[in-house]
Amino acid sequence: MTTKYDWCFSNTGGPYLVNIWHDNMYEENGDIYFVDRTSDWADENRATAIQVQLNRASAVSSLIQTAYYTKAPVNVAILDGTRKTVGLRETSEAKQRELDSVLWYPHHKDKDGRIIVIRGRPQPDDFDPYNEEQQDQKQTPVPPPPNKVEGSGTAIFERDSEIVKAVKQRAVNGCCEFCGKEGFKTASGGFYLEAHHVIPLNCGGPDDVRNVVAICADDHRRAHFGEDRHAVRDRMIWEVLAVHYPNDVAFFEAMDEKSLDIKRSDSGQRKLEDNRIDN
Q1: Is the pLDDT of residue 65 over 80?
Q2: Residue 25 gets which letter from DSSP?
């Protein structure tokens, strides 16, 4: 466990563990299950929750989605205790915790698209979560390209500050989305990370959360100037972004093609180094 109390824990490829309150579990037709509503919780409490709570909620949602699409089991620690609202902020204190000896499985989605996790019952062998996703959801449309502003001989692309904010909120516990290293603490109490467009705007990349990662300063420079920058870019597409947005496969395949164009093109490689580095 980390030194801080988190809502979930995982290693790459598993095992996965989530802490779930006992009163959030239900029993129906012999099944015990819970419904992942952490994204709903974050949306409802975004104005009052502290940043670390939002980061922890995002981590739980990401873990359960990863387990769902890889058909992996989840360990569940069952919590009991007190939960209350102080002022406008929800707080909780666990009095009892017990690690369930039975594995749980992200099984299917309800009519609202929330993942249902069932105790002791794996998904059927022929179940394809990607097909279910395609049937239930439409892909997010690709946004229009950002405006380009010419000035002093350099092309500067307008960036949406709200996208940068959203991506940094997505970073779990203020950690770099690429290497996992925690950003250094800032004077305001937050964590310092930099926003990086994986496919640069001047190479045709969209100003979209699906094309932006929150990473440490070292990895940001590595992505622009490193000897392995092309491999880093591909890993960011498939190991970071595609995991967050698993129903947008066509979007990431298009990014993959642009990544290959940059690698093959001398002008693309120059644009990669010339692209403005934001923080």
Answers
A1: yes
A2: -
